[in-house]
Write a structure and sequence with these properties.
Blueprint: H1 3-14, H2 28-37, H3 41-54, E1 57-65, E2 72-80, H4 83-90, H5 97-103, H6 112-121, H7 127-133, H8 137-146, H9 154-157
Antiparallel strand pairs: 1-2
Length: 168
């Protein structure tokens, strides 16, 4: 989480070591941005290049209370660093990573909102919690309403109030 630790982790990954790290972010693209933003602006281009070659994948998760049984369930976003993703990282185009994840399903990639929707559709999580944890509240609200569902909180049930972003 600090510059020295991130530098050490990148160096270790570049030399073939398997490195796991944790950051409190709301998705793969924001994780990459957080790593890059930890460095001074003068070093950020070099860090993007290093990340584009050393990073293998990013897994972002949120834990949600289950409504079908006791306990919790993890919803996750999974990014595999393909050559296309590596180019986006290197070229400072993290804003396009969600689209690349969407088209990268054949590599096992998954957007958080898609997994949240899957859990909701299977009756495992409540609509309210799905909307609270998703990245694009407007799209999720629309899907709930198109499916004939109700979110259960008046401020979340109004499709007209649905914004297109949830920036946590």
């Amino acid at each position: 989480r600090d510059l020295e630790t991130i530098e050490a982790a990148i160096r270790a990954a570049e030399t073939g070591h398997l490195v796991f790290g944790t950051l409190h972010t709301t998705g793969a693209a924001k994780t990459i941005d957080r790593l890059v933003d930890a460095f001074p602006v003068s070093q950020q281009n070099q860090i993007r290049v290093q990340l584009s070659t050393a990073l293998i994948c990013v897994l972002s998760q949120v834990l949600l209370g289950r409504i079908d049984t006791k306990g919790m369930v993890a919803a996750y976003e999974f990014l595999v660093v393909t050559p296309a993703i590596a180019n986006l990282i290197r070229d400072n185009k993290s804003y396009r990573i969600d689209s690349a994840i969407q088209t990268g399903k054949r590599y096992g990639m998954q957007l958080l909102d898609d997994h949240l929707w899957s859990l909701y559709s299977r009756g495992m999580i409540a609509a309210e919690e799905m909307v609270d944890k998703c990245k694009d509240q407007g799209a999720i609200r629309s899907k709930v309403h198109q499916a004939g569902g109700v979110i259960g909180r008046p401020e979340l049930d109004d499709p007209e109030a649905a914004g297109s972003d949830s920036d946590e």
